[in-house]
Specification:
Low-confidence stretches: 1-157
Order of helices and strands: HEHHEEEEEHEEEEEHEEEEEEEEEEE
Number of strands: 22
CATH topology of the domain at 345-530: Porin
Number of helices: 5
Mean pLDDT: 75
Structural class: mainly beta
Strand order of the largest sheet: 5-6-7-8-9-10-11-12-13-14-15-18-19-20-21-22
Radius of gyration: 25 Å
CATH superfamily of the domain at 345-530: membrane protein fhac: a member of the omp85/tpsb transporter family
Shape: globular
Oligomer: single chain
Protein backbone atom coordinates (compact mmCIF):
# COMPACT_ATOMS: atom_id res chain seq x y z
CA UNK A 1 0.00 0.00 0.00
CA UNK A 2 1.48 3.30 -0.98
CA UNK A 3 1.18 6.47 1.09
CA UNK A 4 3.24 9.60 1.70
CA UNK A 5 2.78 10.67 5.32
CA UNK A 6 4.21 13.32 7.59
CA UNK A 7 6.88 12.43 10.15
CA UNK A 8 4.47 12.94 13.10
CA UNK A 9 1.91 10.72 11.44
CA UNK A 10 4.61 8.21 10.70
CA UNK A 11 5.79 8.27 14.32
CA UNK A 12 2.29 7.66 15.65
CA UNK A 13 1.65 4.82 13.24
CA UNK A 14 4.89 3.21 14.40
CA UNK A 15 3.79 3.70 18.04
CA UNK A 16 0.39 2.16 17.50
CA UNK A 17 1.67 -0.68 15.38
CA UNK A 18 4.13 -1.43 18.14
CA UNK A 19 1.14 -2.24 20.35
CA UNK A 20 0.02 -4.76 17.78
CA UNK A 21 3.51 -6.22 17.80
CA UNK A 22 3.45 -6.54 21.60
CA UNK A 23 0.04 -8.13 21.63
CA UNK A 24 1.12 -10.47 18.86
CA UNK A 25 3.69 -11.94 21.25
CA UNK A 26 0.74 -13.57 23.06
CA UNK A 27 0.53 -16.15 20.29
CA UNK A 28 0.80 -14.60 16.87
CA UNK A 29 3.12 -15.89 14.18
CA UNK A 30 5.48 -13.80 12.14
CA UNK A 31 5.42 -15.25 8.67
CA UNK A 32 8.31 -16.34 6.64
CA UNK A 33 9.00 -18.68 3.85
CA UNK A 34 11.57 -21.37 3.63
CA UNK A 35 12.29 -23.23 0.41
CA UNK A 36 13.36 -26.78 -0.08
CA UNK A 37 16.21 -27.66 -2.40
CA UNK A 38 14.70 -31.10 -2.94
CA UNK A 39 12.26 -29.92 -5.59
CA UNK A 40 13.25 -26.99 -7.83
CA UNK A 41 9.64 -25.87 -8.11
CA UNK A 42 9.43 -25.45 -4.34
CA UNK A 43 12.20 -22.88 -4.50
CA UNK A 44 9.67 -20.56 -6.09
CA UNK A 45 6.71 -21.10 -3.79
CA UNK A 46 4.39 -18.18 -3.22
CA UNK A 47 5.28 -15.56 -0.68
CA UNK A 48 2.77 -15.49 2.15
CA UNK A 49 -0.49 -13.75 1.41
CA UNK A 50 -1.06 -10.75 3.63
CA UNK A 51 -0.19 -12.70 6.72
CA UNK A 52 0.10 -16.06 8.28
CA UNK A 53 -1.78 -16.10 11.56
CA UNK A 54 -2.36 -17.98 14.78
CA UNK A 55 -5.33 -18.86 16.94
CA UNK A 56 -4.92 -16.02 19.43
CA UNK A 57 -2.98 -13.56 17.31
CA UNK A 58 -3.82 -9.89 17.04
CA UNK A 59 -3.37 -7.51 14.23
CA UNK A 60 -3.48 -3.76 14.47
CA UNK A 61 -4.91 -2.08 11.40
CA UNK A 62 -6.81 1.07 10.42
CA UNK A 63 -10.57 1.26 10.15
CA UNK A 64 -11.46 1.57 6.46
CA UNK A 65 -14.77 3.40 6.66
CA UNK A 66 -15.22 6.93 5.33
CA UNK A 67 -18.70 7.11 6.87
CA UNK A 68 -17.28 6.94 10.36
CA UNK A 69 -14.53 9.58 10.10
CA UNK A 70 -16.40 12.02 12.36
CA UNK A 71 -17.11 9.34 14.93
CA UNK A 72 -13.49 8.25 14.81
CA UNK A 73 -12.25 11.79 15.39
CA UNK A 74 -14.39 12.05 18.50
CA UNK A 75 -13.40 8.65 19.79
CA UNK A 76 -9.67 9.07 19.15
CA UNK A 77 -9.31 11.41 22.15
CA UNK A 78 -11.14 9.13 24.57
CA UNK A 79 -9.72 6.56 26.93
CA UNK A 80 -9.38 3.08 25.48
CA UNK A 81 -12.58 1.06 25.49
CA UNK A 82 -13.65 -2.31 24.20
CA UNK A 83 -17.16 -1.10 23.38
CA UNK A 84 -17.76 0.23 19.86
CA UNK A 85 -19.46 3.56 19.38
CA UNK A 86 -23.23 3.40 18.93
CA UNK A 87 -22.91 5.49 15.79
CA UNK A 88 -20.22 3.33 14.25
CA UNK A 89 -20.94 0.70 11.64
CA UNK A 90 -20.78 -3.06 12.16
CA UNK A 91 -17.13 -2.87 11.07
CA UNK A 92 -16.39 -1.69 14.64
CA UNK A 93 -17.95 -4.69 16.35
CA UNK A 94 -15.66 -6.57 18.71
CA UNK A 95 -12.98 -3.92 18.45
CA UNK A 96 -10.68 -2.29 20.93
CA UNK A 97 -9.97 1.41 20.52
CA UNK A 98 -6.44 2.39 21.50
CA UNK A 99 -5.15 5.86 22.29
CA UNK A 100 -1.72 6.18 20.73
CA UNK A 101 0.77 8.72 22.04
CA UNK A 102 3.62 10.05 19.94
CA UNK A 103 6.77 11.33 21.67
CA UNK A 104 7.34 13.74 18.76
CA UNK A 105 5.35 17.02 18.87
CA UNK A 106 3.14 17.79 15.91
CA UNK A 107 5.11 20.91 15.03
CA UNK A 108 8.08 18.70 14.20
CA UNK A 109 6.17 17.11 11.37
CA UNK A 110 7.87 17.14 8.02
CA UNK A 111 7.51 15.56 4.61
CA UNK A 112 8.28 11.88 4.34
CA UNK A 113 7.54 9.11 1.91
CA UNK A 114 7.95 6.34 4.46
CA UNK A 115 5.01 4.39 5.78
CA UNK A 116 4.99 2.24 8.86
CA UNK A 117 5.25 -1.48 9.19
CA UNK A 118 4.94 -2.63 5.61
CA UNK A 119 2.36 -0.02 4.59
CA UNK A 120 -0.75 -0.88 6.57
CA UNK A 121 -1.85 2.77 6.75
CA UNK A 122 -4.87 3.80 4.70
CA UNK A 123 -5.99 7.14 3.35
CA UNK A 124 -8.77 7.40 5.96
CA UNK A 125 -6.31 6.51 8.68
CA UNK A 126 -3.75 9.16 7.72
CA UNK A 127 -6.17 11.97 6.89
CA UNK A 128 -7.75 12.15 10.34
CA UNK A 129 -5.17 14.87 11.09
CA UNK A 130 -4.58 14.10 14.76
CA UNK A 131 -1.62 12.56 16.59
CA UNK A 132 -4.06 10.16 18.24
CA UNK A 133 -5.60 7.54 15.98
CA UNK A 134 -8.37 5.03 16.27
CA UNK A 135 -7.14 1.57 15.46
CA UNK A 136 -8.86 -1.76 15.32
CA UNK A 137 -7.36 -4.80 16.98
CA UNK A 138 -9.14 -7.83 15.65
CA UNK A 139 -8.37 -11.52 15.82
CA UNK A 140 -6.26 -11.47 12.70
CA UNK A 141 -2.71 -12.09 11.68
CA UNK A 142 0.19 -9.75 12.43
CA UNK A 143 2.75 -10.89 9.91
CA UNK A 144 2.95 -7.51 8.23
CA UNK A 145 3.81 -5.97 11.61
CA UNK A 146 7.18 -7.66 11.73
CA UNK A 147 9.16 -7.49 14.92
CA UNK A 148 12.16 -6.41 12.87
CA UNK A 149 10.25 -3.27 11.78
CA UNK A 150 10.47 -1.69 15.22
CA UNK A 151 13.20 -0.81 17.69
CA UNK A 152 13.43 0.96 21.04
CA UNK A 153 12.88 4.70 20.90
CA UNK A 154 15.58 6.89 22.50
CA UNK A 155 12.77 9.14 23.76
CA UNK A 156 11.29 6.36 25.86
CA UNK A 157 11.36 6.67 29.66
CA UNK A 158 13.12 3.35 30.36
CA UNK A 159 14.75 0.31 28.84
CA UNK A 160 11.42 -1.49 28.56
CA UNK A 161 10.01 1.11 26.22
CA UNK A 162 8.72 -1.35 23.67
CA UNK A 163 6.25 -2.67 26.25
CA UNK A 164 2.93 -0.88 26.94
CA UNK A 165 3.03 1.25 30.09
CA UNK A 166 -0.18 0.60 32.03
CA UNK A 167 -1.42 -0.48 35.44
CA UNK A 168 -2.01 -4.27 35.36
CA UNK A 169 -4.38 -3.95 38.33
CA UNK A 170 -6.64 -1.49 36.56
CA UNK A 171 -9.87 -2.32 34.75
CA UNK A 172 -8.59 -3.92 31.55
CA UNK A 173 -11.80 -2.98 29.74
CA UNK A 174 -10.53 0.60 29.78
CA UNK A 175 -6.76 0.83 29.44
CA UNK A 176 -4.71 3.83 28.23
CA UNK A 177 -1.58 2.66 26.43
CA UNK A 178 1.61 4.69 26.21
CA UNK A 179 3.99 2.98 23.81
CA UNK A 180 7.35 4.33 22.66
CA UNK A 181 8.83 2.70 19.56
CA UNK A 182 10.39 3.86 16.34
CA UNK A 183 10.60 2.25 12.94
CA UNK A 184 13.54 -0.10 12.55
CA UNK A 185 15.41 -1.19 9.48
CA UNK A 186 13.42 -2.75 6.69
CA UNK A 187 16.26 -3.35 4.25
CA UNK A 188 19.32 -5.52 4.45
CA UNK A 189 22.35 -6.57 2.44
CA UNK A 190 23.67 -10.07 3.07
CA UNK A 191 26.98 -11.48 1.92
CA UNK A 192 28.22 -14.85 3.11
CA UNK A 193 29.03 -18.48 2.49
CA UNK A 194 26.91 -21.45 3.52
CA UNK A 195 27.10 -25.21 3.46
CA UNK A 196 24.59 -28.02 3.97
CA UNK A 197 24.46 -31.73 3.34
CA UNK A 198 21.95 -31.45 0.47
CA UNK A 199 23.40 -28.64 -1.67
CA UNK A 200 27.07 -28.51 -0.70
CA UNK A 201 28.89 -25.17 -0.47
CA UNK A 202 27.00 -22.07 -1.64
CA UNK A 203 27.61 -18.35 -1.67
CA UNK A 204 24.88 -15.98 -0.59
CA UNK A 205 24.47 -12.41 -1.83
CA UNK A 206 21.08 -10.85 -1.05
CA UNK A 207 19.56 -7.38 -1.32
CA UNK A 208 16.24 -7.44 0.51
CA UNK A 209 13.83 -4.53 1.13
CA UNK A 210 10.53 -5.10 2.98
CA UNK A 211 9.25 -1.53 2.59
CA UNK A 212 9.83 -1.14 -1.15
CA UNK A 213 7.96 1.37 -3.33
CA UNK A 214 8.51 1.25 -7.07
CA UNK A 215 6.83 4.66 -7.45
CA UNK A 216 9.23 6.43 -5.06
CA UNK A 217 11.68 7.36 -7.81
CA UNK A 218 14.63 9.34 -6.40
CA UNK A 219 14.72 13.03 -7.30
CA UNK A 220 18.28 13.64 -6.17
CA UNK A 221 21.22 12.00 -4.43
CA UNK A 222 19.86 12.99 -1.02
CA UNK A 223 16.98 10.56 -1.53
CA UNK A 224 19.50 7.73 -1.83
CA UNK A 225 21.66 8.90 1.06
CA UNK A 226 18.73 9.42 3.44
CA UNK A 227 17.00 6.16 2.48
CA UNK A 228 13.93 7.63 0.76
CA UNK A 229 14.58 6.18 -2.70
CA UNK A 230 12.23 3.34 -3.62
CA UNK A 231 10.93 3.05 -0.06
CA UNK A 232 7.67 3.60 1.77
CA UNK A 233 5.13 1.43 -0.08
CA UNK A 234 5.11 -1.66 2.12
CA UNK A 235 6.04 -3.84 -0.86
CA UNK A 236 8.79 -6.44 -1.02
CA UNK A 237 11.85 -6.52 -3.26
CA UNK A 238 14.53 -9.19 -3.26
CA UNK A 239 17.59 -9.68 -5.44
CA UNK A 240 19.41 -12.92 -4.70
CA UNK A 241 22.52 -14.63 -6.03
CA UNK A 242 23.49 -18.04 -4.63
CA UNK A 243 26.37 -19.50 -6.64
CA UNK A 244 27.30 -22.95 -5.42
CA UNK A 245 29.34 -26.07 -5.80
CA UNK A 246 26.47 -28.34 -6.88
CA UNK A 247 23.52 -25.96 -6.79
CA UNK A 248 23.07 -22.32 -7.84
CA UNK A 249 20.13 -19.94 -7.91
CA UNK A 250 19.70 -16.37 -9.13
CA UNK A 251 16.38 -14.66 -8.51
CA UNK A 252 14.64 -11.30 -8.75
CA UNK A 253 11.39 -11.06 -6.78
CA UNK A 254 8.69 -8.46 -6.16
CA UNK A 255 5.72 -8.84 -3.81
CA UNK A 256 2.78 -6.69 -2.74
CA UNK A 257 0.82 -7.99 0.28
CA UNK A 258 -2.11 -5.64 -0.44
CA UNK A 259 -2.39 -5.44 -4.22
CA UNK A 260 -4.21 -2.24 -5.27
CA UNK A 261 -5.14 -1.62 -1.60
CA UNK A 262 -7.12 -4.86 -1.37
CA UNK A 263 -6.76 -8.08 0.62
CA UNK A 264 -5.30 -9.73 -2.46
CA UNK A 265 -1.56 -10.40 -2.39
CA UNK A 266 0.60 -10.44 -5.51
CA UNK A 267 4.00 -11.98 -6.08
CA UNK A 268 6.18 -12.28 -9.17
CA UNK A 269 9.69 -13.54 -9.72
CA UNK A 270 12.22 -14.32 -12.42
CA UNK A 271 14.83 -16.98 -11.80
CA UNK A 272 17.76 -18.99 -13.09
CA UNK A 273 18.43 -22.32 -11.42
CA UNK A 274 21.28 -24.80 -11.95
CA UNK A 275 21.76 -28.17 -10.27
CA UNK A 276 24.35 -30.89 -10.79
CA UNK A 277 22.56 -34.12 -9.95
CA UNK A 278 24.16 -37.53 -9.70
CA UNK A 279 22.83 -38.63 -13.11
CA UNK A 280 22.36 -35.40 -15.09
CA UNK A 281 22.76 -31.62 -15.03
CA UNK A 282 19.60 -29.53 -14.85
CA UNK A 283 19.06 -25.90 -15.76
CA UNK A 284 15.82 -23.96 -15.27
CA UNK A 285 15.04 -20.42 -16.34
CA UNK A 286 11.63 -18.79 -16.13
CA UNK A 287 9.16 -16.72 -14.20
CA UNK A 288 6.30 -17.04 -11.78
CA UNK A 289 3.17 -15.01 -11.02
CA UNK A 290 0.87 -15.67 -8.10
CA UNK A 291 -2.13 -14.16 -6.33
CA UNK A 292 -3.42 -14.98 -2.87
CA UNK A 293 -6.52 -14.11 -0.87
CA UNK A 294 -7.09 -14.58 2.86
CA UNK A 295 -10.54 -15.97 3.61
CA UNK A 296 -10.05 -15.96 7.40
CA UNK A 297 -7.09 -15.09 9.64
CA UNK A 298 -5.80 -18.66 9.21
CA UNK A 299 -7.23 -19.76 5.87
CA UNK A 300 -6.04 -18.55 2.47
CA UNK A 301 -6.32 -19.54 -1.17
CA UNK A 302 -3.79 -18.88 -3.90
CA UNK A 303 -3.27 -19.33 -7.59
CA UNK A 304 0.01 -19.37 -9.47
CA UNK A 305 1.30 -19.47 -13.02
CA UNK A 306 4.83 -20.68 -13.76
CA UNK A 307 6.60 -20.53 -17.12
CA UNK A 308 9.88 -22.42 -17.41
CA UNK A 309 12.43 -23.77 -19.82
CA UNK A 310 14.12 -26.87 -18.41
CA UNK A 311 17.39 -28.11 -19.87
CA UNK A 312 18.61 -31.67 -19.16
CA UNK A 313 22.22 -32.33 -20.16
CA UNK A 314 25.24 -34.56 -19.44
CA UNK A 315 23.45 -37.83 -18.61
CA UNK A 316 25.51 -40.35 -16.66
CA UNK A 317 24.22 -43.14 -18.89
CA UNK A 318 22.00 -43.64 -21.93
CA UNK A 319 19.30 -46.22 -22.46
CA UNK A 320 17.05 -45.25 -19.54
CA UNK A 321 13.75 -44.16 -21.20
CA UNK A 322 12.70 -41.62 -18.55
CA UNK A 323 16.03 -39.81 -18.84
CA UNK A 324 16.41 -40.14 -22.61
CA UNK A 325 12.95 -38.62 -23.22
CA UNK A 326 13.80 -35.47 -21.26
CA UNK A 327 17.25 -34.74 -22.73
CA UNK A 328 17.62 -31.29 -24.29
CA UNK A 329 15.40 -28.26 -23.73
CA UNK A 330 11.82 -28.64 -22.51
CA UNK A 331 9.14 -25.98 -22.13
CA UNK A 332 6.35 -25.97 -19.59
CA UNK A 333 3.50 -23.78 -18.39
CA UNK A 334 1.90 -24.71 -15.09
CA UNK A 335 -1.31 -23.35 -13.56
CA UNK A 336 -1.81 -24.11 -9.87
CA UNK A 337 -4.61 -23.68 -7.33
CA UNK A 338 -3.87 -24.02 -3.63
CA UNK A 339 -5.42 -23.77 -0.18
CA UNK A 340 -3.60 -23.29 3.11
CA UNK A 341 -4.65 -23.31 6.78
CA UNK A 342 -1.91 -22.28 9.21
CA UNK A 343 -2.26 -21.74 12.97
CA UNK A 344 1.41 -22.21 13.96
CA UNK A 345 2.90 -19.80 16.47
CA UNK A 346 6.03 -19.41 14.32
CA UNK A 347 7.22 -20.92 11.03
CA UNK A 348 10.60 -21.86 12.54
CA UNK A 349 10.62 -24.33 15.44
CA UNK A 350 6.85 -24.12 15.87
CA UNK A 351 5.58 -25.17 19.31
CA UNK A 352 1.79 -24.96 18.88
CA UNK A 353 -0.81 -25.12 16.15
CA UNK A 354 -1.00 -26.93 12.85
CA UNK A 355 -0.19 -26.46 9.18
CA UNK A 356 -2.34 -27.80 6.33
CA UNK A 357 -1.90 -27.22 2.62
CA UNK A 358 -3.20 -28.78 -0.55
CA UNK A 359 -2.73 -27.88 -4.20
CA UNK A 360 -3.35 -29.12 -7.72
CA UNK A 361 -1.43 -28.06 -10.83
CA UNK A 362 -2.01 -28.63 -14.52
CA UNK A 363 1.15 -28.52 -16.64
CA UNK A 364 1.25 -28.23 -20.44
CA UNK A 365 4.12 -27.90 -22.89
CA UNK A 366 6.66 -30.50 -23.97
CA UNK A 367 4.81 -32.86 -21.60
CA UNK A 368 1.22 -32.61 -20.34
CA UNK A 369 0.45 -33.85 -16.81
CA UNK A 370 -1.39 -33.06 -13.58
CA UNK A 371 0.20 -32.83 -10.13
CA UNK A 372 -1.40 -32.88 -6.69
CA UNK A 373 -0.15 -32.50 -3.13
CA UNK A 374 -1.55 -32.57 0.41
CA UNK A 375 0.35 -31.99 3.66
CA UNK A 376 -0.54 -31.79 7.35
CA UNK A 377 1.73 -31.03 10.33
CA UNK A 378 0.65 -30.82 13.99
CA UNK A 379 2.59 -29.29 16.90
CA UNK A 380 1.64 -30.19 20.50
CA UNK A 381 3.03 -28.25 23.46
CA UNK A 382 3.79 -30.81 26.19
CA UNK A 383 5.27 -28.59 28.90
CA UNK A 384 6.95 -25.22 29.42
CA UNK A 385 8.39 -22.99 32.13
CA UNK A 386 6.23 -20.43 33.92
CA UNK A 387 7.56 -17.65 31.68
CA UNK A 388 6.74 -19.57 28.49
CA UNK A 389 10.31 -20.63 27.70
CA UNK A 390 11.80 -24.11 27.81
CA UNK A 391 9.08 -25.65 25.69
CA UNK A 392 8.85 -29.39 25.09
CA UNK A 393 7.08 -30.07 21.79
CA UNK A 394 5.78 -33.27 20.21
CA UNK A 395 5.14 -32.83 16.49
CA UNK A 396 4.12 -35.10 13.65
CA UNK A 397 3.40 -34.70 9.96
CA UNK A 398 2.22 -36.52 6.84
CA UNK A 399 2.59 -35.62 3.17
CA UNK A 400 1.31 -37.20 -0.05
CA UNK A 401 2.35 -36.12 -3.57
CA UNK A 402 1.16 -37.60 -6.86
CA UNK A 403 1.74 -36.74 -10.51
CA UNK A 404 0.51 -38.02 -13.87
CA UNK A 405 1.99 -40.92 -15.85
CA UNK A 406 3.32 -38.56 -18.55
CA UNK A 407 5.41 -36.57 -16.05
CA UNK A 408 9.04 -36.11 -17.20
CA UNK A 409 11.92 -37.14 -14.96
CA UNK A 410 12.71 -33.55 -13.94
CA UNK A 411 9.29 -33.24 -12.26
CA UNK A 412 9.28 -36.70 -10.66
CA UNK A 413 9.27 -36.97 -6.88
CA UNK A 414 12.39 -37.96 -4.93
CA UNK A 415 13.24 -38.57 -1.28
CA UNK A 416 16.33 -38.62 0.87
CA UNK A 417 18.10 -35.77 2.64
CA UNK A 418 17.23 -33.36 5.39
CA UNK A 419 13.98 -32.05 3.91
CA UNK A 420 12.39 -35.45 3.28
CA UNK A 421 13.87 -38.56 4.95
CA UNK A 422 16.94 -38.13 7.12
CA UNK A 423 19.47 -40.96 7.22
CA UNK A 424 19.84 -41.00 3.42
CA UNK A 425 21.81 -38.97 0.90
CA UNK A 426 20.04 -36.26 -1.07
CA UNK A 427 17.59 -38.14 -3.34
CA UNK A 428 19.18 -41.36 -2.09
CA UNK A 429 15.86 -42.99 -1.11
CA UNK A 430 14.30 -43.03 -4.58
CA UNK A 431 13.58 -45.62 -7.29
CA UNK A 432 16.57 -46.58 -9.46
CA UNK A 433 16.32 -47.87 -13.05
CA UNK A 434 19.43 -48.87 -14.98
CA UNK A 435 21.64 -47.28 -12.35
CA UNK A 436 19.81 -43.93 -12.66
CA UNK A 437 17.77 -42.35 -9.85
CA UNK A 438 14.55 -41.81 -11.79
CA UNK A 439 12.21 -40.88 -8.95
CA UNK A 440 8.55 -41.77 -9.08
CA UNK A 441 4.96 -40.69 -9.61
CA UNK A 442 3.96 -40.98 -5.95
CA UNK A 443 5.67 -39.93 -2.73
CA UNK A 444 4.49 -40.52 0.82
CA UNK A 445 6.38 -38.98 3.75
CA UNK A 446 5.86 -38.97 7.51
CA UNK A 447 7.71 -37.86 10.61
CA UNK A 448 7.32 -37.82 14.40
CA UNK A 449 9.65 -35.63 16.47
CA UNK A 450 10.10 -34.60 20.10
CA UNK A 451 11.99 -31.36 20.80
CA UNK A 452 13.27 -30.25 24.21
CA UNK A 453 15.58 -27.49 25.56
CA UNK A 454 19.17 -28.08 26.67
CA UNK A 455 19.90 -24.55 27.93
CA UNK A 456 17.90 -22.04 29.95
CA UNK A 457 17.99 -19.46 27.14
CA UNK A 458 16.67 -21.95 24.54
CA UNK A 459 19.71 -21.33 22.35
CA UNK A 460 20.40 -25.06 22.27
CA UNK A 461 17.67 -27.67 21.81
CA UNK A 462 17.68 -31.40 21.28
CA UNK A 463 15.42 -33.57 19.12
CA UNK A 464 14.67 -37.27 18.79
CA UNK A 465 12.76 -38.36 15.71
CA UNK A 466 11.58 -41.04 13.37
CA UNK A 467 11.17 -40.40 9.64
CA UNK A 468 9.37 -42.80 7.33
CA UNK A 469 8.07 -42.89 3.78
CA UNK A 470 8.57 -44.07 0.23
CA UNK A 471 8.73 -42.98 -3.40
CA UNK A 472 7.03 -45.28 -5.91
CA UNK A 473 7.04 -45.51 -9.69
CA UNK A 474 3.30 -46.24 -9.66
CA UNK A 475 0.39 -45.42 -7.32
CA UNK A 476 1.01 -48.22 -4.83
CA UNK A 477 3.29 -48.82 -1.84
CA UNK A 478 5.87 -51.60 -1.77
CA UNK A 479 6.21 -52.53 1.90
CA UNK A 480 9.64 -54.09 1.36
CA UNK A 481 11.08 -50.74 0.24
CA UNK A 482 9.26 -48.64 2.84
CA UNK A 483 11.94 -46.55 4.57
CA UNK A 484 12.00 -46.15 8.36
CA UNK A 485 14.64 -44.09 10.18
CA UNK A 486 15.25 -43.22 13.84
CA UNK A 487 17.64 -40.56 15.02
CA UNK A 488 18.54 -37.59 17.19
CA UNK A 489 19.94 -34.12 16.67
CA UNK A 490 20.54 -30.57 17.84
CA UNK A 491 18.98 -27.18 17.06
CA UNK A 492 21.38 -24.28 17.60
CA UNK A 493 20.00 -20.73 17.51
CA UNK A 494 22.35 -18.17 15.96
CA UNK A 495 20.47 -14.85 16.32
CA UNK A 496 22.82 -12.71 14.23
CA UNK A 497 22.65 -15.12 11.28
CA UNK A 498 19.00 -16.02 10.72
CA UNK A 499 15.60 -16.62 12.26
CA UNK A 500 16.10 -20.28 11.45
CA UNK A 501 18.35 -22.33 13.73
CA UNK A 502 21.22 -24.49 12.58
CA UNK A 503 20.22 -28.17 12.47
CA UNK A 504 22.50 -31.15 13.07
CA UNK A 505 20.93 -34.61 12.79
CA UNK A 506 22.04 -38.23 12.96
CA UNK A 507 19.70 -40.73 11.26
CA UNK A 508 19.87 -44.53 11.35
CA UNK A 509 17.75 -46.42 8.77
CA UNK A 510 15.90 -49.45 10.12
CA UNK A 511 14.44 -50.41 6.75
CA UNK A 512 15.47 -49.39 3.24
CA UNK A 513 15.66 -50.52 -0.38
CA UNK A 514 18.71 -52.31 -1.75
CA UNK A 515 19.53 -49.39 -4.07
CA UNK A 516 19.26 -46.68 -1.38
CA UNK A 517 22.26 -44.51 -0.49
CA UNK A 518 22.55 -44.04 3.27
CA UNK A 519 24.01 -41.03 5.05
CA UNK A 520 24.08 -40.91 8.84
CA UNK A 521 24.86 -37.23 9.38
CA UNK A 522 22.96 -34.28 7.89
CA UNK A 523 23.04 -30.57 8.62
CA UNK A 524 21.04 -27.63 7.40
CA UNK A 525 20.65 -23.89 7.92
CA UNK A 526 17.25 -22.27 7.37
CA UNK A 527 14.95 -25.26 7.52
CA UNK A 528 11.18 -25.61 7.64
CA UNK A 529 10.49 -29.02 9.14
CA UNK A 530 11.17 -28.10 12.83
Amino acid sequence: MQRTISSSNKQFICNALGVGLLLSMLGCSITDSTHSVNNPASLLDDQPTPAESTDDGFRIEPIFDNANVNTLRQTSHQTTTSEPSNTASTDLENTVVIRGQSPIPENNAGPSNSSSADGVASADFVELGNPSRVLRIDDQESSNVSQASFQQSPLAPNDDSVSPLFDPNANLNSVPFDVFVEEGRTGRFVFGVGVNSDAGITGNIVIDERNFDYEAVPRNWDDFIEGRAFRGGGQGFRLEAMPGQNWSRYMLQYSNPYFNDTKVSFNTSAFLYDRIYQDWNENRVGGRFSFGYRLTPDLSVNTALRIEQVGIKNPSTLGVPDLDDALGDNNLVGFRLGLKHDTRDTPFLATEGHYFSTSVEQVVGSFDYTRGSIEYRKYNLIRERADGSGRHVLSWGLQLDVTGENTPIYDHYFAGGYQTIRGFRYRGASPVIGGVQTGGQMRFLGSVQYMFPFTADDMLRGVVFTDFGTVEEQYSINSEDFRVVVGAGLRIAVPFMSQAPFALDFGFPLNSADTDQKQTFSFFMGFSRG
